[in-house]
Amino acid sequence: MSDVRHNWTIEEIRTIYHTPLLSLVLEASSVHNKNHKFGEVQISSLLSIKTGGCSEDCAYCPQAARYHTGVQVHALMKTEDVVTAAQNAKDGGASRFCMGAAWREVRDNRDFDRVLDMVKEVNKLDMEVCCTLGMLTGDQAQKLADAGLYAYNHNVDTSAEHYEQIITTRTYDDRLQTLSNVRKAGISVCSGGIIGMGEKDDDRIGMLMTLANLPEHPESVPINVLVPVEGTPLADSKRVPFDELVRMIATARIMMPHSAVRLSAGRLELSISEQAMCFMAGANSIFAGDKLLTTPNPEFNSDKEMFNILGLTPKAAFVDAPHKKNAMQHEPA
Ligand code: SAM
Ligand code: DTB
Ligand code: SF4
Fold first, then answer.
1. Pairing verdict, β 40-50 and 283-288
2. Are strands 96-101 and 151-153 parallel, antiparallel or unpaired?
3. Active site annotation includes 96
4. Is the shortest distance between the CB of 224 and ligand 2 below 6 Å?
5. Long-range contacts of the stretch 1-5 (C-beta < 8 A, 24+)
6. Most distant pair of Cα atoms in the chain: their distance
7. Model confidence at 161: pLDDT above 60
8. Confidence at 327, pLDDT banded by 50, 70, 90
9. Quick one: angle between helices 272-280 and 300-310, nearest 10?
10. CA distances from 126 to 83, 159, 325, 328, 330 (A)
């Protein structure tokens, strides 16, 4: 029987999630060891190419125009500045470059044409190019694929049940539709969520069930710990205890054995030993660089030290899709 399943039941996932912590980590480690190179961690770099002023009401987000968070609004960056940032990220060891825009959805306008240019240019650096731009139609996903986009990030964020407490300006089904449009265009899917938004264990479990029971597992599953930002409705949220993050990572690893599980926002509050346990539990990717989109992240040097101490090795680009390497450079201009 294939180890890739799409028919998980809530009871099965509950049992995994509530396993005593060390036994859970042991099981996840063994799944990880079977399917990935142990100790290899992908370094991804994030750049906010269009910041703030977003029309949505995502309760966690510092970039929503309606909350007063002090984030400065910036129009879409110039392509050449984006390429310079990507080159710097590559020089620092990153093999994936993710461009984020504070948009509800992509519109068919000149800004989108510019993003398509950015994708083409960053692709020439031999990095896995990723975008997170909000909702996409099938046509827009195809245009991004044609420009050489490797991956698209669009998070389900939480369970279908808890979603309405967090976002009212677009539905859970809208999210799933975008994921399906991305998949149909042949782009690698990156989708995960956030813990620490007042959800119950069953919401975390439900979110993992949604992701793992998609027709294909997302190739990348970011697990973010809420970064509470002053001015947002979730500013006073209680910090997620670290063992709950480990549980979430381990359960994702067991359910989606071949996916990259990304230890995403929230690393600044974690010690090296806490992060080590996340890597033991199956996390094999991080965002590096001292800023995520708008909030702080560990400094380059402290991550370098962590890689040295734990003996981690950065994962090269396109290991999982060698046919995509430089695909665009062989096409006529
Ligand atoms: N606007 C696009 C969208 O919503 O899809 C792309 C950018 S959005 C900032 C990307 C993801 O960042 C969100 O789906 C959410 O999971 C994560 N995120 C945003 N603010 C966060 C926060 N304060 N803490 C943790 N994760 C956050
Ligand atoms: C994801 O799941 N986490 C990243 C990336 N995808 C785009 C974003 C985290 C953003 C944290 C809040 C901020 O820095 O604005
Ligand atoms: Fe806008 Fe994305 Fe932030 Fe929601 S998460 S407010 S859509 S930038």
1. parallel
2. unpaired
3. no
4. yes
5. 3/31, 3/35, 3/257, 4/217, 4/256, 4/257, 4/258, 5/212, 5/255
6. 56
7. yes
8. low
9. 60
10. 12, 35, 7, 10, 13
Q: Please check whether residue 39 is in contact with residue 311, taking contact to mean a CB–CB distance below 8 angstroms.
A: yes
Cα 38 from Cα 280, distance rounded (Å): 9
Cα 266 off chain centre by:
12
The ligand placed nearest to the CA atom of residue 261 is 2
Among 190, 204, 247, 253, which one carries the catalytic annotation?
Answer: 190
Contact at 8 Å (CB) between 57 and 168?
yes
* CA–CA gap between residue 17 and residue 12 (Å, rounded): 9
Question: Within its chain, how far is the Cα of 234 from the centroid?
Answer: 20
| Position 255, amino acid | M
Atom of ligand 3 nearest to the CA of 170: 7
Q: State in Å: Cα 330 to ligand 2 middle.
A: 32
Q: Cα separation of 255 and 258, whole Å?
A: 9
Give the per-residue pLDDT at 330: 45
C-alpha of residue 330 to centroid of ligand 1, in Å: 34
Per-residue model confidence as pLDDT tens digits over 168-218? 999 999 999 999 999 999 999 999 999 999 999 999 999 999 999 999 999
For each of the domains in the chain, give its residue range(s) and CATH number, in order of start. Answer: 10-316 (3.20.20.70)
The share of the chain scoring above pLDDT 70, in percent, equals 97
pTM of the model: 0.96
CB count within 10 Å of CB 105 equals 15
